[in-house]
């Protein structure tokens, strides 16, 4: 956008009207006071608060007794808005103008005045659907940028909380904010994230995932190496631990870095309920992770290659159930895994209660009908159901467990238990080699080396937690 302002108001009006020709939401309001003062007000209909413009901009201009004003006088002594400034940079002026601010130009001064009159409609604050809790705060991030920052500021009432803004996206010009606690977050981590954000030159940014896929480590890994949350209390807690947060305008999902595997087994309720309840729940999640990965593979390995490991009565029951079934165990297991994923996807995409009902009823009806028709065996249905249900206990690892479940089942079908062990070894080696912003991915799940971390496999009681810090060992000054 190439616009050059001059001291002639008529030329400036014509320049802006040419730039936004064809846009019916672009509004030009010329104001002439009884004293002879002539100004022009520009804004986009639907993006501004009309009452604020009428009461705080138009009315003071009409009552002004001076015939000529400079841009500084207009911004400092006439406009009755708490955020009004002279913006000589045309690029910055256009960025604010397109985001809901009002621009004022006066005769005899080429510098525009930018007034904060944003008034576009936004979604009200509510609890995130994907991160509900039984106890704890019910507030969630929204698509409104400054509202999200205010939620963080309200929880971290610390002067060391820093917000660093940048704009990413050649066409969308999206505002991105890097948030961190100075002295708590490692300076090297902050510089690493800032450097990665500075290198981004995408055409557009409409959601935080546009940035997440570009700045994360090991982009082809099935495991998440960049954290995300829709809850301000979770983002604030991670910043207190030494992480940084990335807030993207227009997205309710806030990114956090670094991300370690331990986060995937934590839930918000772990810190709002008793230590014993949290410990039991976290142990169940660890068990669910192992079960969802290994149950189908272990079933195929034993049925196909190691039948001697199955108890006799159980082996006879499996053999009787498979009698008359046209599909071999490998085919029926993989078919059921695919059908389960299809039902889960259909239930997710179908709105409201209908989707939940369809996924549950659809699974029951299809499974029962397939077993009665002798199309598949009952043990295969049970095995896939166990793997699917345990996978739902780890929402942050659902994509990872889906990929690894199929891979381990394939290894076990070909090589038996040796293939399963080989596949698990590859997964472990991959995890050992993962980093997130130069932080080991298995931090806190290996033998503890940082003495200030009491939240590892299980959460320690709050009265024993000296410091919930996992990245730095230094004390605050």
In short:
The chain is α+β, with helices and mostly antiparallel strands. It is 46% helix and 12% strand.
Q: How many angstroms does the end-to-end distance come to? A: 47 Å
Record the strand order, biggest sheet. 1-2-4-5-3
Q: Output the radius of gyration.
A: 30 Å
The number of helical segments is 16
Q: Tell me roughly what share of residues is in helical segments.
A: 40-55%
Described by strand count, sense and barrel closure, the largest sheet is: 5 strands, antiparallel
Mean pLDDT: 86
* Low-confidence segments: 448-452, 472-477
Number of domains: 3
The chain-level structural class is alpha+beta
The string of secondary-structure elements, in order, is: HEEHHEHEEHEEHHEHEEHHHHHHHHEE
| Number of strand elements | 12
How much strand content do the residues show? Answer: 5-15%
What characteristic shape results from the CA principal axes? elongated
